[in-house]
Amino acid sequence: MRNKKRLILLLLTASLTSGFVETKAQDIVKPATAGFDTYQQNIQHGNIDTITYASATVGTNRKALVYTPPGYSKSKKYQVLYLLHGIGGDEKEWLNGGKPQVILDNLYAQGKLVPMIVVMPNGRAMKDDRATGNIMAPDKVAAFATFEQDLLNDLIPYIEKNYPAITKRESRAIAGLSMGGGQALNFGLGNLDKFAWVGSFSPAPNTRKPEELVPDVEKAKKQLKLLFISCGASDGLLSFSQRTHAYLDEKKVPHIYFIEPGGHDFKIWKNGLFMFSQLIFKPVDSSNFAKYTEMGMNTAPANN
Ligand code: FER
Q1: Which of 79, 182, 197, 224 can pair with 173 through a Cys bridge, CB separation 3.0 to 4.6 Å?
Q2: Is the pTM of the predicted complex or chain greater than 0.90?
Q3: Ligand 1 pocket member 86 (CB < 6 A)
């Protein structure tokens, strides 16, 4: 009897210890698995508001969607993620194509996120900001650059006045898909006094050249909490991720570079949100970053 008890104790200790080791090894956030974007009835859900803010930049009232997390209360304080759309979209693109509220609700139910407000703006800062007609027209493409002023001077002040947001750079993240991925890199890295967390999923040709994106390498190293770039291996825009990654590596700016199978679509962008949202507003271990590149596909450009 006594031996049996000792054996049970031994087995219990062994399983607890191995469990601990496993938890340690899982510090890497893994890509999404089946069900991550399936609506679950029996969990708490966040809420989506449509807001209208006055934009002095554009001279109109502009719309954005705001996701507040399960258990949201005005008496608490929240981190904020600004989540940007692509060239063919508007403030509803993430909602229509990516079900971000389902992905985030599921992650909250598993205790994997720090509570955050997610703002989905319209990143085409012009009077007619609909994604109609020729979406590649020069004035429409230019409006994605103009959005930097709208974001910094109009939208962020509106959010921070009307929502219980923490108003420090360490509590603001910016991420986006394609044109929005380019915006996230341009605006995030260009305004490190405003953002500490930057995520770019399949960044588009609007992404500034690396030397312009990160002109002050030491400042970026000091100020950035996390820089995350992901892209599909068969995306025609992969070169914009590759050249940014190559420069960051050369200058030893810590970042996550994750290349996964796929093209230029929401499969990549949903997984980008899934991974990035779990990493932000938490302590970061940059010694893990290389493991994301190893976990991903090797798509080094031909050396010619
Ligand atoms: C381009 C190709 C793609 C471009 C933009 C995109 C401005 C954007 C794609 C997207 O947002 O999905 O040449 O030029």
Answers
A1: 197
A2: yes
A3: yes
